[in-house]
User: What shape does this take?
Amino acid sequence: MRYRRCPSGLIAPEDELTIPRFGIKGLREWMDAASIGTLVGSKSITTTTTTTTTTTTSTSTSTSTSTSSSSSTSTSTSSSSTSTTTSTSTTSTSTTTSTSTTSTSTSTSTSTSSTTTVAPEFSPIDIAGCVLWLDASQESYNDNDAVSTWTDRSGNGYDATQATAGRRPIFKTSIINGLPVVRFVRANYNWLENTSTGLITEDFTICTVGKFNSLTGVQRVVDINDAADYLGRAFTFDTTLQLRINGGYQAEYSYSDTTNFHYWTCKHIPTSRTIYEDGVSQNTSSDTKDGDNTSRYTIGDDGGFDYPADIDIAEIAIYDSSLGDSDRALIESYFAEKYAL
Assistant: This one.
């Protein structure tokens, strides 16, 4: 399932960018006006021109002629005088000619040919460098089914799986804006993993849509780590919501919401990391530290049964770079529109 992707203005610096809430199409118009992005493909719709002409002509002519003639002669004679009266009739002829004006009416309707550029549907893989995309709305599980595999839609084959039946999270339908989630229950130590290597190296971005159902203890949401020591890169809750690198060096902020869904973006380069909530920067930490263990990823725990999460997750996208503001705006606007956040 895919979804469709604006006042002008310049983009603010990265840590000050607030994402407008006007949908994918409006966002693209806003980006074009600010000269910070271009449409990812387009399609054209052309309407044809139709002309219809109707001509009506009418002519009528009538002629009437009337002629009247009268003649009378009167003669009278008396013995003493003679009187003669003569009356000569006159003939009158009247001719009337009526000719109607020939009228012609022409009706023309023309539809003007035009070409409209339509923004294509957007998905996280439209942004370069998407190495993992997990989308609950594209899964075919029924309500309350155990999730053994959450399919990677990036095309890279990094499916998240759980071989142990008792550790599998639960699929829940119609939870957010009519869409499903994968529910991880802390008490059941639910988690999914992929043990393949090479997901990311240094720079990365983790994008997540979810809702915490409790904030008890340490909870790993997304963890990219080494199975030997479980250190690496983690989007986690530990009294604060954090992007943690190798057990420390985190960007973090105070968090207490167990009612509402949010979308989070965690960006990292070796010298700094930033965490965003609903498109708004919450904290940036600056120091030189990189996560050097990248052999696997886990969702809902660190894989060592240490930090199980209590969270509903609708979607996750991971990139092998620290996304620029325009790309971050695209993915965050997509989340906001899709999940009505």
In short: The chain is about 5% helix and 45% strand. The mean pLDDT is 73. The first helix runs from residue 23 to 33. Helices lie at 23-33, 325-338.
